[in-house]
Please model this.
Amino acid sequence: MRVVSIHGVELLDAYYRVTDNAAPKNWDARLGIEARKRLKQLDWLLLQVQQREVEHAQVMPSDPARAAAVVEEIELLTEAFYYLAFRARSVLQALPGLESFDPIGVRNVRNKLIEHPEGQDFRVLDQSFVFGADHGPVFRGMRFEHESPAWPDPGLYRNAKEFREKLHVLLLPYIARDREERETVT
Model:
């Protein structure tokens, strides 16, 4: 099984050092500290979900009660991921140079499928939850014919990868700048 993670802490640390040294007018170091904490939490949650998916496959044949409990844990951890990822998104967008960060999958799943599924433009109220394969856990993955097909969830792992890729694009340029700044100091 391939492990899915955000791997953004080191990149954010480089961003933090460069931005803290430059001290732009709209810089608030406390938001950078929170962003770092949220990225670590997201990686922990992703690891927990993946470990429980493996556990589910192992216990399913012999212990259906534990398998059912693991499904509930996976759903809870997945939902927690989306809430924390949405908060991370908001915090990152408040940082200078990262305003354009918008992981659409995280935003849509949190807003349309978890927080406001009763919305007038979609009404996806079915509580289905599926997991497995490369896409990972999916909210509202199975829908009735009368339910809107709007806002399909591509899956936790695909949304986490999108989050990571969009974040890395914004943070990678800070690695070289951070290295340059640290080399000129020594």
